[in-house]
């Protein structure tokens, strides 16, 4: 490709939390960006600031249906990612993962586009190995209430791996661990949005169990940075890395390995919102409480020269700012 | 349903190894049977004896496309099941599992049919628990060369579980362990067909490693018997069983837990073919040799009042007879 030709990117789930950040980043780098979204969990608000940009297009489209167009790079991010959302529409969630992946792989194949697929730490399920390395196969229930997401995402990885092996499609996959930041859905039921919303509304901050269980939190900009580095690599470098590591297909963990207890997160939230009248309250641990997960990011460090840069303090400040404005 | 109304069954993969046996069994019980098959691994030969039966119809159809019709019971058996076949067409294999399941669940939903889905012991992958119980989540690679089959089948289970939970579809699933018998594909690359073909052709019988690794073998008629018992159960009994066992959806192992070494199988094959000039030869174990699997069938015993009845000696005799005629 010549230097002065504008590169074209397609972002599925482009009006979602992560998708909208990626669109913004690609536009900043000079791309022409098309965002697809069915607006099930994505919102127009997330991309409002981009609609005036002549290099940006939004298409209301569901990826379970084929989509055609000529792009240099496809970023497949479409899928409800919060249990609150995907358990509300389990079959549609599975279809989004699986049919969406099929449609995007077919598009990549026919137009010779590179494709980055956003997989998830949920493919590791309730992991028996800590921290999780990419070569770990996971521990996932096929018939539970979380299975639509976990198995849909696992199946999408398999499809991507087979399109790469069979047709030579240039697929790259990231397994995204817990990520937060502005544009998160305020009611997605995850701990960071819960705590901030509770603190802003002067409601009790609910901790389950003793609050000493740990979590790791990746700020959204660190993730988009990893994605862009990954897509910039020449294919040969990606292939050589897989060969060297014995990986059947290029899958790389992206996440922040620094661990905090839920109690520390609650305390930091209140420290940043000193005007809040919220107090910490403790409730019994629910039976399906997400298990501890922590990424091993050695592969990302080696292949992408990447590691997370945004501290929880800084990332939380930006996220609180976003939620505060949302409430105004 | 009134006693004297003919019950209608749909069998996907009806011209395949297991599907054709099931069609035969259903016809013997008085059903009207429609067999769907795309003839990728199924053959007309498998159902030749049924074509004259006025209660039998064969439709050349690929289950990745929707199919409509009114049936009381759907048996979803369509999918290449031997590594030789599914690794030749990995993407189509995945589509058969996933899209085929979606299409059949939609059919079951719209016509209020019961549906039995044939899952597989491969959902346990390379199991870390022996013998395998239905509550074990498995150990499966998402991006390897066997993943198209394993993950496709896992994903189909998830879909079935969600259609049951969300729409109340009356789904029942069997996880089928290694099964053999007449109508097996002579070149499917599995150990029983390999040994018989080698013995009949006076070729060396190839054992990998020391031949002391064990396998369990279920005769096809035992499996169709389990399937029929399962489908005859009232829905309430199935639901109550799931509740009692803490199963998210009705999945039952069917297989023969009796274990034989590969060497014992080779010796029994030669004992039944005394005229064969074949000798046992030993080769190094390949890296992707299927791991040991043995079903725990306590659930099937309790729910279905079922256990395998056909001995390896008897089943092998019938299978040898079939392969012998095939060669004539």
Features:
homodimer, 328 residues, Rossmann fold, seven-stranded parallel sheet, two-stranded parallel sheet, 10 helices, globular
List the helices and strands and how they pair.
Two copies of one chain form a homodimer.
Chain A: E1 8-12, H1 17-28, E2 32-37, E3 56-60, E4 73-76, H2 83-86, H3 90-111, E5 114-120, H4 147-167, E6 171-176, E7 179-180, H5 191-200, E8 205-208, E9 214-216, E10 218-219, H6 220-232, H7 235-245, E11 251-254, E12 259-261, H8 262-272, E13 280-283, H9 298-304, H10 312-327
Parallel strand pairs in A: 1-2, 1-4, 2-3, 4-5, 5-6, 6-11, 7-10, 8-13
Antiparallel strand pairs in A: 9-12
Helix pairs in contact in A: 1-6, 3-4, 5-8, 5-10
Structural features, described:
- The structure is a homodimer of 328-residue chains.
- Chain A is of the alpha/beta class and 328 residues long.
- The first copy, chain A, has a single domain, classed as NAD(P)-binding Rossmann-like Domain (Rossmann fold).
- Chain A contains ten helices and 13 strands.
- In chain A, the strands form four sheets. In chain A, strands 3-2-1-4-5-6-11 form a seven-stranded parallel β-sheet, with helices on both faces. A two-stranded parallel ribbon of chain A has the order 7-10.
- In chain A, α1 links the parallel β1 and β2.
- In chain A, α1 packs across α6 (220-232), α3 runs parallel beside α4 (147-167) and α5 (191-200) packs across α10.
- Chain A is globular and about 55 Å long.
- The N and C termini of chain A lie far apart (46 Å).
